[in-house]
């Protein structure tokens, strides 16, 4: 039987949602091994002067535990 644990991570980027998601995985991988999936629960962007200036994701990261 495999055990899976889920953590929640908030990450940002000034380039886009894809990079924000990758930043979440990269940061989590510093302390978590065996990451298997990412579920984006929430996405938002900050706007200044009618332009998007940053992107953020609220990601649930699943990983197997031994």
Describe the model.
With 66 residues, the chain is α+β, with helices and mostly antiparallel strands. The protein has a single domain, classed as 2-Layer Sandwich (Dodecin subunit-like). Helix content is 18%, strand content 61%. The chain is built from one helix and three strands; from the N terminus they run E-H-E-E. It has a three-stranded antiparallel beta sheet with strand order 1-3-2. A hairpin with a 2-residue loop joins strand 2 and strand 3 (51-65). The mean pLDDT is 96.
List strands and helices in order, with pairings.
Blueprint: E1 3-13, H1 17-28, E2 35-48, E3 51-65
Antiparallel strand pairs: 1-3, 2-3
Structure in a nutshell:
This protein is 18% helix and 61% strand. The radius of gyration is 14 Å and the shape is elongated.
- Shape call: elongated
- SSE arrangement, N to C: EHEE
> What is the architecture at the second tier of CATH?
2-Layer Sandwich
Q: Provide the low-confidence segments as ranges.
A: none
How many DSSP E strands?
3
Which strands sit side by side, in order, in the main sheet?
1-3-2
- How many domains comprise the coordinates? 1
Number of helices: 1
Largest sheet: 3 strands, antiparallel
Average pLDDT works out at: 96
CATH topology, by name, is Dodecin subunit-like
Rg is 14 Å
CATH superfamily: Flavin-binding protein dodecin
CATH class: Alpha Beta
% residues in beta strands? over 45%
Kindly name the structural category: alpha+beta
Helical residues, percent: 10-25%
Distance between the termini: 10 Å
């Amino acid at each position: 039987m495999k055990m899976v644990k889920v953590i929640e991570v908030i990450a940002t980027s000034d380039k886009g949602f894809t990079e924000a998601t990758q930043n979440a995985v990269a940061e989590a991988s510093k302390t978590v091994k065996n990451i298997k999936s990412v579920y984006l629960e929430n996405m938002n962007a900050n706007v200044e002067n009618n332009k998007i200036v940053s992107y953020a994701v609220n990601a649930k990261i699943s990983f197997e535990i031994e």
